[in-house]
Amino acid sequence: MRFSFVHAADLHLDTPFRGVATHGPLLERFQQSTFQALARIVDVCLRERVTFLLLAGDLFDVKDRSVRARLALRTELARLDRAGIQTFIVHGNHDPLSGDTGTLGLPASVKVFGPRWEDVEVRREGRRLCHVQGVSYPDVEVRENLSARFRRTGEHFSVGLLHANLGGDAGHANYAPCTAADLAAGGLDYWALGHVHTRAEHLLPGGGVAVYPGNPQGRHVHETGERGCVVVDVEDGIARRRFVPVDRVRWHRLDVPLSGVTSLDMLQAVASEVVESRCAQDFDGHAVRLTLAGRGPLHRELARPGARTQLEADLRERLARAHPPVLLESLRDGSRPEVDLEAVRAGGGFLGTLLEEAEALSHDDAALASLWDDEDLTTLGQRLKRLGVDALEAPRPELVAQAGQRGVEQLHEETS
């Protein structure tokens, strides 16, 4: 039998968007974006005429969910209820069951899984379509491998709905940790996962698949690109998946090339062109982090005290007046001085020797290993780890070569 469903996760309704100014034309657009993403997910369900919607945890941004967020969720799920579309929900670490006040009901077509594993049959016109299994977080921190509770209960297509960290993703708290082998052991056909905000699919031993749809609305500069939900079409036990973007405010990290840019006027124009080329018109807004990149004559100007900050303030004001408006999250200076490294190498002397020695060291495995064994470097690495900063565990030849280039550049700047 053929049927379809939509899988979404990590709505984070009413997220505060702390990186956005508390006033101005962009604030309201950002504040509404998570609600609009939910509405667009429901639009997808109605347009595709799916049988049900799966929401895999973190529907709300905080345990004490706002009244506005709860009302918005009920309004949108009521649209599905009127269309005869079921909804299945599990709660995660941001919105555990302990945060539910119980003062706002949901439509009868909505199934919220509790703290114990449950298996629910989905039927259409009296015929069994599939099984949906799920379990919610009772409170914020769940360290148990919840996937071990899941098991196939029949021959029909089986879905596992779970908020979990598959494979120990370092970018997210290790809640409900599991492995691909753990999921495969459950014998389910489709694992509808939440928690990791980056879209991903994991093919499992035995033929199942585990899917992270990612969050439907980017919330900061580390959540760039299109965001949305997954439409799953099931026929003869095979799940075919389609990603559908639903975000209305999109985040970007863009480089502004400095090659050939000889004035601040040109720099402003180039930056505006870069943003305009990547920020589509059919959005409510955009947010960007710009990095000035490459070698150019403006490097020295940008290195002056306060120069980058003043340029950033001017660009922020200009971009906020664009259509649609663009938030400048930050302007980073990755510019480099105009130094002809080949000429430095050919010229010899101290700078040429420094460059050659660094490049030679980067190709000497024994020397690199000795460098990484330096007691001071080891101590620094240990201190960084205690502060939660990732430290290099092994030699990186390219970093040694880059250090030589940066040293030449700095010395060249000081002597020119």
TrEMBL record:
<dbReference type="InterPro" id="IPR050535">
    <property type="entry name" value="DNA_Repair-Maintenance_Comp"/>
</dbReference>
<protein>
    <submittedName>
        <fullName>DNA repair exonuclease</fullName>
    </submittedName>
</protein>
<dbReference type="InterPro" id="IPR041796">
    <property type="entry name" value="Mre11_N"/>
</dbReference>
<dbReference type="Pfam" id="PF00149">
    <property type="entry name" value="Metallophos"/>
</dbReference>
<dbReference type="InterPro" id="IPR029052">
    <property type="entry name" value="Metallo-depent_PP-like"/>
</dbReference>
<dbReference type="InterPro" id="IPR014576">
    <property type="entry name" value="Pesterase_YhaO"/>
</dbReference>
<keyword id="KW-0378">Hydrolase</keyword>
<keyword id="KW-0269">Exonuclease</keyword>
<feature type="domain" description="Calcineurin-like phosphoesterase">
    <location>
        <begin position="4"/>
        <end position="198"/>
    </location>
</feature>
<keyword id="KW-0540">Nuclease</keyword>
<dbReference type="GO" id="GO:0004527">
    <property type="term" value="F:exonuclease activity"/>
</dbReference>
<dbReference type="InterPro" id="IPR004843">
    <property type="entry name" value="Calcineurin-like_PHP"/>
</dbReference>
